[in-house]
Write a structure and sequence with these properties.
- The protein is mostly beta strands.
- Helix content is 4%, strand content 44%.
- It has 2 helices and 23 strands.
- A 9-stranded antiparallel β-sheet has the order 6-7-8-9-23-19-18-13-16, with no helix packed on it. Strands 5, 11, 12, 14, 15, 17, 20 and 21 form an 8-stranded antiparallel β-sheet that branches. Strands 1-2-3-4 form a 4-stranded antiparallel β-sheet, with no helix packed on it.
- It is globular, with a radius of gyration of 18 Å.
- The termini are far apart.
- The structure holds 6-O-phosphono-beta-D-glucopyranose (BG6).
- 6-O-phosphono-beta-D-glucopyranose is lined by residues 68, 88-89, 155, 179, 199, 231, 233, 258.
Protein backbone atom coordinates (compact mmCIF):
# COMPACT_ATOMS: atom_id res chain seq x y z
CA UNK A 1 0.00 0.00 0.00
CA UNK A 2 2.80 2.45 0.90
CA UNK A 3 4.58 1.83 -2.42
CA UNK A 4 1.33 2.86 -4.12
CA UNK A 5 0.61 5.85 -1.88
CA UNK A 6 3.79 7.62 -2.99
CA UNK A 7 2.17 7.93 -6.43
CA UNK A 8 -0.92 9.74 -5.16
CA UNK A 9 -1.67 13.16 -6.69
CA UNK A 10 -3.99 15.31 -4.54
CA UNK A 11 -7.42 15.63 -6.13
CA UNK A 12 -6.40 13.33 -9.01
CA UNK A 13 -4.99 9.99 -7.87
CA UNK A 14 -5.95 8.29 -4.59
CA UNK A 15 -5.21 4.79 -3.34
CA UNK A 16 -7.87 3.06 -1.24
CA UNK A 17 -8.53 -0.43 0.14
CA UNK A 18 -10.91 -2.22 -2.22
CA UNK A 19 -12.85 -5.50 -2.32
CA UNK A 20 -10.98 -8.57 -1.08
CA UNK A 21 -8.56 -6.25 0.74
CA UNK A 22 -6.91 -5.39 -2.57
CA UNK A 23 -5.74 -1.83 -3.21
CA UNK A 24 -7.56 0.21 -5.83
CA UNK A 25 -6.29 3.34 -7.53
CA UNK A 26 -8.99 5.95 -7.99
CA UNK A 27 -8.49 8.58 -10.67
CA UNK A 28 -10.45 11.77 -11.06
CA UNK A 29 -10.11 14.26 -13.89
CA UNK A 30 -12.20 17.29 -14.88
CA UNK A 31 -13.94 15.09 -17.46
CA UNK A 32 -14.12 11.60 -15.94
CA UNK A 33 -13.33 9.10 -13.20
CA UNK A 34 -11.71 5.67 -13.25
CA UNK A 35 -10.53 2.84 -11.03
CA UNK A 36 -7.58 0.56 -11.64
CA UNK A 37 -6.47 -2.48 -9.66
CA UNK A 38 -2.73 -3.21 -9.59
CA UNK A 39 -3.89 -6.87 -9.59
CA UNK A 40 -3.77 -7.46 -13.35
CA UNK A 41 -3.28 -3.69 -14.02
CA UNK A 42 -6.99 -4.06 -14.39
CA UNK A 43 -9.17 -1.04 -15.21
CA UNK A 44 -12.50 -1.80 -13.52
CA UNK A 45 -14.24 1.52 -14.00
CA UNK A 46 -14.35 4.47 -16.36
CA UNK A 47 -17.13 6.97 -16.51
CA UNK A 48 -17.33 10.34 -18.23
CA UNK A 49 -19.00 13.02 -16.10
CA UNK A 50 -22.76 12.69 -16.36
CA UNK A 51 -22.58 9.46 -18.38
CA UNK A 52 -23.23 5.79 -17.66
CA UNK A 53 -20.22 3.59 -16.81
CA UNK A 54 -18.32 2.57 -19.94
CA UNK A 55 -17.17 -0.76 -18.54
CA UNK A 56 -19.26 -3.67 -17.34
CA UNK A 57 -18.24 -5.19 -13.99
CA UNK A 58 -19.84 -8.40 -12.77
CA UNK A 59 -21.52 -8.27 -9.36
CA UNK A 60 -20.19 -11.81 -8.86
CA UNK A 61 -16.54 -11.00 -9.65
CA UNK A 62 -13.92 -12.41 -7.37
CA UNK A 63 -11.16 -10.20 -6.03
CA UNK A 64 -8.61 -12.75 -4.97
CA UNK A 65 -4.92 -13.35 -5.57
CA UNK A 66 -4.49 -15.75 -8.49
CA UNK A 67 -8.03 -15.19 -9.81
CA UNK A 68 -8.97 -12.90 -12.70
CA UNK A 69 -11.41 -10.04 -12.14
CA UNK A 70 -14.64 -10.48 -14.16
CA UNK A 71 -15.34 -7.29 -16.10
CA UNK A 72 -13.46 -4.10 -16.87
CA UNK A 73 -10.35 -4.60 -18.99
CA UNK A 74 -8.41 -7.81 -18.30
CA UNK A 75 -4.93 -7.61 -19.86
CA UNK A 76 -4.40 -10.86 -21.72
CA UNK A 77 -0.68 -11.60 -22.15
CA UNK A 78 1.53 -13.47 -23.10
CA UNK A 79 -0.96 -15.94 -24.56
CA UNK A 80 -4.64 -15.92 -25.43
CA UNK A 81 -6.80 -18.92 -24.48
CA UNK A 82 -5.61 -22.22 -23.10
CA UNK A 83 -2.03 -23.35 -22.53
CA UNK A 84 -1.43 -26.69 -20.83
CA UNK A 85 -0.71 -26.44 -17.12
CA UNK A 86 -0.81 -22.64 -17.27
CA UNK A 87 -3.46 -20.02 -16.47
CA UNK A 88 -6.10 -19.51 -19.18
CA UNK A 89 -5.49 -16.24 -21.09
CA UNK A 90 -1.95 -15.83 -19.66
CA UNK A 91 -0.57 -14.74 -16.31
CA UNK A 92 -0.67 -10.94 -16.74
CA UNK A 93 -4.28 -10.68 -15.55
CA UNK A 94 -3.53 -12.58 -12.33
CA UNK A 95 -0.23 -10.86 -11.53
CA UNK A 96 0.14 -7.74 -9.38
CA UNK A 97 1.76 -5.10 -11.63
CA UNK A 98 4.10 -2.42 -10.27
CA UNK A 99 2.76 1.11 -10.45
CA UNK A 100 5.81 3.02 -11.64
CA UNK A 101 4.58 6.52 -12.30
CA UNK A 102 1.53 8.76 -12.23
CA UNK A 103 1.29 12.16 -13.91
CA UNK A 104 -1.30 14.93 -14.23
CA UNK A 105 -0.89 16.04 -17.84
CA UNK A 106 -1.29 19.60 -19.21
CA UNK A 107 -4.46 18.59 -21.10
CA UNK A 108 -6.04 17.72 -17.68
CA UNK A 109 -5.85 13.96 -18.21
CA UNK A 110 -4.06 11.62 -15.80
CA UNK A 111 -1.57 8.99 -16.90
CA UNK A 112 -0.52 5.88 -14.95
CA UNK A 113 2.30 3.57 -15.96
CA UNK A 114 2.45 -0.04 -14.77
CA UNK A 115 5.13 -2.67 -15.34
CA UNK A 116 4.73 -6.42 -15.16
CA UNK A 117 7.33 -7.68 -12.68
CA UNK A 118 7.89 -11.19 -14.07
CA UNK A 119 9.69 -10.15 -17.22
CA UNK A 120 11.57 -13.32 -18.13
CA UNK A 121 13.00 -12.26 -21.49
CA UNK A 122 10.62 -9.34 -21.94
CA UNK A 123 9.49 -6.09 -20.41
CA UNK A 124 5.77 -5.32 -20.43
CA UNK A 125 4.57 -1.79 -19.71
CA UNK A 126 0.99 -0.66 -19.57
CA UNK A 127 0.03 2.99 -19.77
CA UNK A 128 -3.51 4.01 -18.82
CA UNK A 129 -4.55 7.58 -19.67
CA UNK A 130 -7.79 8.79 -18.13
CA UNK A 131 -9.33 11.92 -19.62
CA UNK A 132 -12.12 12.65 -22.05
CA UNK A 133 -11.45 9.13 -23.33
CA UNK A 134 -9.83 6.05 -21.85
CA UNK A 135 -6.54 5.25 -23.55
CA UNK A 136 -4.73 1.96 -23.01
CA UNK A 137 -1.25 1.15 -24.31
CA UNK A 138 0.48 -2.19 -23.81
CA UNK A 139 4.15 -2.14 -24.86
CA UNK A 140 6.24 -5.29 -24.93
CA UNK A 141 10.01 -5.21 -25.45
CA UNK A 142 12.10 -8.28 -26.16
CA UNK A 143 14.94 -8.10 -23.62
CA UNK A 144 16.28 -11.57 -24.44
CA UNK A 145 18.94 -12.68 -26.92
CA UNK A 146 16.48 -14.71 -29.03
CA UNK A 147 13.17 -14.08 -30.78
CA UNK A 148 10.12 -13.58 -28.55
CA UNK A 149 6.65 -14.64 -29.66
CA UNK A 150 3.53 -13.68 -27.70
CA UNK A 151 -0.18 -12.95 -27.96
CA UNK A 152 -1.90 -9.98 -26.37
CA UNK A 153 -5.45 -8.79 -25.99
CA UNK A 154 -7.26 -6.05 -24.08
CA UNK A 155 -10.31 -8.08 -23.18
CA UNK A 156 -12.67 -5.14 -22.70
CA UNK A 157 -16.14 -5.74 -21.19
CA UNK A 158 -18.52 -2.93 -22.18
CA UNK A 159 -21.61 -1.90 -20.27
CA UNK A 160 -24.65 -1.88 -22.54
CA UNK A 161 -28.36 -1.33 -21.90
CA UNK A 162 -29.79 -4.36 -23.72
CA UNK A 163 -27.88 -7.01 -25.69
CA UNK A 164 -30.97 -7.76 -27.79
CA UNK A 165 -30.88 -4.24 -29.26
CA UNK A 166 -27.10 -3.87 -29.48
CA UNK A 167 -25.24 -3.84 -32.80
CA UNK A 168 -21.50 -4.07 -33.41
CA UNK A 169 -20.36 -2.30 -36.58
CA UNK A 170 -17.06 -2.11 -38.42
CA UNK A 171 -16.22 -5.76 -39.06
CA UNK A 172 -18.04 -6.37 -42.35
CA UNK A 173 -15.83 -8.32 -44.78
CA UNK A 174 -13.41 -9.50 -42.07
CA UNK A 175 -12.68 -13.20 -41.81
CA UNK A 176 -13.20 -14.78 -38.43
CA UNK A 177 -12.79 -17.98 -36.50
CA UNK A 178 -16.09 -18.97 -34.93
CA UNK A 179 -14.76 -20.56 -31.74
CA UNK A 180 -18.06 -22.35 -31.10
CA UNK A 181 -18.34 -23.92 -34.58
CA UNK A 182 -14.57 -24.28 -35.04
CA UNK A 183 -15.05 -22.81 -38.52
CA UNK A 184 -13.46 -20.01 -40.45
CA UNK A 185 -16.09 -17.68 -41.92
CA UNK A 186 -16.39 -14.20 -43.42
CA UNK A 187 -18.51 -11.53 -41.79
CA UNK A 188 -21.29 -10.70 -44.22
CA UNK A 189 -23.28 -8.41 -41.95
CA UNK A 190 -22.79 -4.68 -41.70
CA UNK A 191 -24.07 -4.94 -38.12
CA UNK A 192 -23.50 -7.90 -35.82
CA UNK A 193 -26.51 -8.64 -33.62
CA UNK A 194 -26.70 -11.05 -30.69
CA UNK A 195 -29.21 -13.89 -30.43
CA UNK A 196 -27.04 -16.67 -28.94
CA UNK A 197 -23.61 -17.35 -27.44
CA UNK A 198 -21.06 -15.54 -29.60
CA UNK A 199 -17.30 -16.17 -29.51
CA UNK A 200 -15.45 -15.00 -32.61
CA UNK A 201 -11.90 -14.03 -33.42
CA UNK A 202 -11.90 -11.56 -36.33
CA UNK A 203 -8.52 -11.44 -38.06
CA UNK A 204 -6.66 -9.05 -40.35
CA UNK A 205 -8.69 -6.13 -39.12
CA UNK A 206 -7.38 -2.86 -37.78
CA UNK A 207 -10.82 -1.27 -38.10
CA UNK A 208 -12.49 1.03 -35.62
CA UNK A 209 -15.52 -0.74 -34.12
CA UNK A 210 -18.73 0.96 -32.98
CA UNK A 211 -21.03 -0.61 -30.42
CA UNK A 212 -24.44 0.90 -31.03
CA UNK A 213 -26.54 0.80 -27.88
CA UNK A 214 -30.00 2.37 -28.28
CA UNK A 215 -31.04 1.40 -24.73
CA UNK A 216 -28.35 3.67 -23.23
CA UNK A 217 -28.60 6.08 -26.18
CA UNK A 218 -24.94 5.94 -27.04
CA UNK A 219 -22.29 4.60 -29.34
CA UNK A 220 -19.12 3.19 -27.81
CA UNK A 221 -16.21 3.72 -30.22
CA UNK A 222 -13.20 1.38 -30.07
CA UNK A 223 -10.19 2.79 -31.96
CA UNK A 224 -7.01 0.78 -32.05
CA UNK A 225 -3.52 0.58 -33.49
CA UNK A 226 -0.89 -2.15 -33.42
CA UNK A 227 -3.67 -4.74 -33.45
CA UNK A 228 -4.92 -7.07 -36.19
CA UNK A 229 -7.34 -9.19 -34.15
CA UNK A 230 -10.73 -8.22 -32.71
CA UNK A 231 -12.58 -10.71 -30.49
CA UNK A 232 -16.34 -10.42 -30.01
CA UNK A 233 -17.80 -12.35 -27.09
CA UNK A 234 -21.06 -12.74 -25.22
CA UNK A 235 -21.60 -15.90 -23.13
CA UNK A 236 -25.42 -15.87 -23.43
CA UNK A 237 -27.63 -17.94 -21.10
CA UNK A 238 -26.09 -21.39 -20.56
CA UNK A 239 -22.48 -20.23 -20.33
CA UNK A 240 -23.46 -17.38 -18.01
CA UNK A 241 -25.02 -20.01 -15.73
CA UNK A 242 -21.85 -22.13 -15.86
CA UNK A 243 -19.51 -19.28 -14.91
CA UNK A 244 -19.31 -19.03 -11.11
CA UNK A 245 -18.11 -15.42 -11.15
CA UNK A 246 -20.80 -14.11 -13.49
CA UNK A 247 -24.49 -13.49 -12.77
CA UNK A 248 -27.06 -15.54 -14.70
CA UNK A 249 -28.70 -12.43 -16.18
CA UNK A 250 -25.59 -10.31 -16.65
CA UNK A 251 -25.09 -11.35 -20.29
CA UNK A 252 -27.96 -8.94 -21.06
CA UNK A 253 -25.91 -5.90 -20.05
CA UNK A 254 -22.45 -6.64 -21.48
CA UNK A 255 -20.52 -7.33 -24.62
CA UNK A 256 -16.79 -7.88 -25.03
CA UNK A 257 -15.05 -6.28 -28.00
CA UNK A 258 -11.39 -7.13 -27.53
CA UNK A 259 -8.45 -5.63 -29.39
CA UNK A 260 -5.24 -7.58 -29.72
CA UNK A 261 -2.98 -9.90 -31.67
CA UNK A 262 -3.88 -13.55 -31.30
CA UNK A 263 -3.42 -16.91 -33.05
CA UNK A 264 -1.86 -16.31 -36.50
CA UNK A 265 -1.35 -12.69 -35.49
CA UNK A 266 0.84 -13.55 -32.51
CA UNK A 267 3.75 -11.09 -32.54
CA UNK A 268 7.39 -12.10 -32.95
CA UNK A 269 10.01 -9.58 -31.85
CA UNK A 270 13.72 -9.77 -32.57
CA UNK A 271 16.03 -9.00 -29.61
CA UNK A 272 15.64 -5.36 -28.57
CA UNK A 273 12.45 -4.82 -30.57
CA UNK A 274 9.25 -3.41 -29.12
CA UNK A 275 5.57 -3.67 -30.10
CA UNK A 276 2.78 -1.44 -28.81
CA UNK A 277 -0.93 -2.20 -28.78
CA UNK A 278 -3.02 0.94 -28.35
CA UNK A 279 -6.75 1.20 -27.75
CA UNK A 280 -8.77 4.36 -27.24
CA UNK A 281 -12.34 4.12 -25.95
CA UNK A 282 -14.89 6.86 -26.28
CA UNK A 283 -18.65 7.32 -26.20
CA UNK A 284 -20.85 9.44 -28.46
CA UNK A 285 -24.52 10.24 -28.13
CA UNK A 286 -26.81 8.25 -30.42
CA UNK A 287 -29.33 10.49 -32.10
C1 LIG B 1 -12.96 -14.71 -24.63
C2 LIG B 1 -12.82 -16.06 -25.27
O1 LIG B 1 -11.99 -13.87 -25.10
O2 LIG B 1 -12.80 -14.86 -23.22
C3 LIG B 1 -13.87 -16.99 -24.69
O3 LIG B 1 -12.96 -15.92 -26.67
C4 LIG B 1 -13.77 -17.03 -23.17
O4 LIG B 1 -13.72 -18.27 -25.24
C5 LIG B 1 -13.83 -15.62 -22.63
O5 LIG B 1 -14.83 -17.80 -22.66
C6 LIG B 1 -13.73 -15.51 -21.12
O6 LIG B 1 -12.62 -16.16 -20.62
P1 LIG B 1 -12.41 -16.23 -19.05
O7 LIG B 1 -11.18 -17.07 -18.82
O8 LIG B 1 -12.23 -14.82 -18.59
O9 LIG B 1 -13.65 -16.86 -18.48
Amino acid sequence: MESLKIHEIPGRVTVIGGPGGMPVIQVRTDASEAEIHPHGAHVTRFRKNGGAPLLFMSEASEFQPGKPIRGGVPVIFPWFGAREGQPFHGFARVTVWDLQETAALPDASVRLRFRLPEGDGFQADYIVTVGNTLKLELSVTNTSATDLTFESCLHTYFQIGDIHRTEVRGLQGASYLDQLLGERLTEEAGSIRFTAETDRIYQDTAATVDIVDPALGRIIRVRKSGSLSTVVWNPWIAKAQRMPDFGDEEYLQMVCVESGNVREHAITLAPGERATLEVELDTLPLD
